[in-house]
Amino acid sequence: PYDGSLWVASDKKLVRLDAAGRQLIAWSARGEVRRIALALDESLWLLGGENQIWHYSPSGALLESRSLSGLLSSEVKRLAVDSLGRRLWIASEKQLAQFDVADLNKSPKIISLPSEAENIVIEPQTGTLWVLSEKKLLAYDKNIALIKNIDLASLGIGEPESIAYDPLSKHLWLGYEKGIAKISQDGSLLAKIALSSEVEAIGVPSFYVTPTLSLIQPPENALTNNAKPTITLSFGALCFGVPCGFSPSYYASYGLSANL
Known about the structure:
By secondary structure, the protein is mostly beta strands.
C-alpha cells in the first residue's frame, strides 16, 4: 500500500501492519490464504486452498470469488493483478491463464508454458507479465503473446526463486541461489550481488498513479471580457511524478463536477 503498510497472511487470517509494525486491521478470509496480490485500489486478490480465488476490500468485505477447479491441469501456484489493464493472471506449473477482472466468471484465456513457472510479476504500467522459470525469464503481453525469452544460464543465474519489478527504475530483480541480480527489460545483466543464502523475497517501491487536471482554455492568467467563456479541462495521470502516457481510453471513466 501507498502508506508503507504491509499485509501479512497466516492460514485464514489477514493482518495489515503500519510501517512501525503496529496492527491496523485484521480479518479472516473464507479459507487458507496461499498468495496475495494487491490492486491499485488497495483491494486484495487472494489465492486460496483448493484452487479458489477471492477478491476482498481492504476492510475484509468479500467482493467476488471464483473456483479454478478443472480449469488448469495442475494446482495453481501464483497470481498477479494488472489493475490498469483490468486483468488477473494465474499460473500453474505449466499453464498460464488470464481473466477479465470486469467479468471473473468469463472463460479465461489459457496457454501452455514451455517450462515450469517458479514465480510471476506484473509490469504495472504496460501490463506485461514476466514469468520466471528455472532456466528462462519469459515476458507475455496483454494478448498472452510471448515477447521476450531470456536465457538465465547465459547471465550466470541458477536456481532462481523470486522476482520483482521496480516501477521506478523499470528494471527487474531476480533472487537466486546465494545471490540477487538486476536485469533490464531487454535482458541485459546490470548488476549481481553475492549473498550467503537463497533470496526468497524482494521488496521494491509500490507503483501508484496520481490523477491530474489541467486548464486548457482559457490560458492561465488570461484576461477576457467574455462573460461566459468556454472552459476546457484535460485529465492526465502521473506515474512517480512523470506523465504515464496512457491512451485516451484510460480516462473514459473519469468525471468532473464543479460548482461556480
